[in-house]
UniProtKB/TrEMBL annotation:
GO molecular function list: S-adenosylmethionine-dependent methyltransferase activity
Species this protein is from: Streptomyces coelicolor
Presence of keyword RNA-binding: no
UniProt keyword list: Methyltransferase, Plasmid, Transferase
Protein name stated in the entry: C5-O-methyltransferase
GO biological-process terms attached to the record: methylation
Pfam families in alphabetical order: Methyltransf_11
Length: 283
């Protein structure tokens, strides 16, 4: 990611198009997932797919014991986390994504996993969730806020559709407050990766409070997620340069330059990975 503050943020339609083009490659890199991996013991040799499933399991643990059974999956990707959740607990999941390709893949996965009666996916924009107030017992947003024009607006929308007492779990890539490269709010942005502007980790508490939610946990597990995941993705891009170049709509030489630039920029220590839980007060 580079500092290009004057760029126009990608619209939801553009983010959908990005995932229509990239999902197959990401799924191949991350064992059917579209999110990063978690290596609590660095160098334990787990594959990126196994580490990505482990991150899903960390979040499943955060929603354990919810009362009620209706769960919203905001930015559901190609459905693997929602299906994994449904296979681990007696819940019904509704997943939303802006990518039509992901809706198709996720729906097929739910069928193949025999949970299609409990897990459904639809194309919708999380900035304006098409659900009534108080209609979910829980929600999670796994690594999707980074793509939203306003993460604060999405958190408000999630708070609206949660019932009183409803629970929220979030993971996301975010900037660390003590960033050593001096990147400021709004400066870590990438048109190529459909990221309007990463928020600072210390902004989450305010966004949660402004949405009327109670914050329960805010942890940064970036050291166990970001470096090893980016290394795995870099290797996958290098192995499939021509496919990634086609998906990004650039030439192979340009793709090679992007990878080299991402590899040499000193920003990785500035990037954290938030795990957050919250609750809508009441009940
Ligand atoms: C990095 S992927 C994570 C996918 C999935 N949560 C997972 O963990 O595998 C980001 C997801 O956010 C979704 N997304 C981005 N902007 C969105 C928006 N405005 N409304 C709904 N989904 C959005 C993308 O379509 C994609 O599914």
């Amino acid at each position: 990611m580079m500092a290009v503050p004057e760029q126009t943020p990608p619209s939801s339609l553009e983010v959908g198009d990005y995932y229509d083009r990239l999902t197959d490659l990401m799924n191949r890199a991350l064992g059917g997932n579209t999110h990063l991996g978690y290596w609590p013991q660095p160098g334990d040799g787990s594959s990126p797919g196994k580490a990505a499933d482990r991150l899903t399991d960390l979040l499943i643990g955060k929603l354990r014991g919810i009362t009620g059974r209706r769960v919203l999956d905001v930015g559901c990707g190609s459905g693997k986390p929602a299906v994994r959740l449904a296979l681990s607990a007696p819940v019904d999941v509704v997943g939303v994504t802006v990518s039509e390709v992901q809706v198709g893949l996720a729906t097929a996965l739910a069928k193949q996993s025999h949970v299609a009666d409990r897990v459904v996916f639809t194309r919708a924009d999380a900035m304006e969730l098409p659900f009534p107030d108080g209609s979910f017992d829980a929600a999670w947003a796994l690594e999707c806020l980074l793509h939203m024009p306003s993460p604060a607006q999405v958190i408000r929308e999630i708070a609206r559709v949660l019932r009183p007492g409803g629970r929220l779990a979030v993971t996301d890539v975010a900037l660390r407050a003590f960033g050593r490269t001096g990147m400021k709010r709004g400066e870590c942005t990438s048109q190529l990766l459909a990221v309007p502007a990463l928020v600072h980790i210390d902004e989450y508490a305010g966004m949660i409070a402004d949405a009327g939610l109670e914050l329960h946990e805010l942890t940064d597990i970036g050291d166990q997620v970001v470096g090893p995941s980016f290394a795995a993705l870099r290797d996958h891009v290098n192995e499939h340069l021509d496919e990634y170049a086609a998906a990004f709509g650039i030439g192979v030489a340009e793709m090679r330059k992007v990878v080299a630039q991402c590899t040499t920029l000193p920003w990785t220590p500035d990037i954290g990975y938030v795990v957050l839980t919250a609750r809508r007060p009441g009940e």
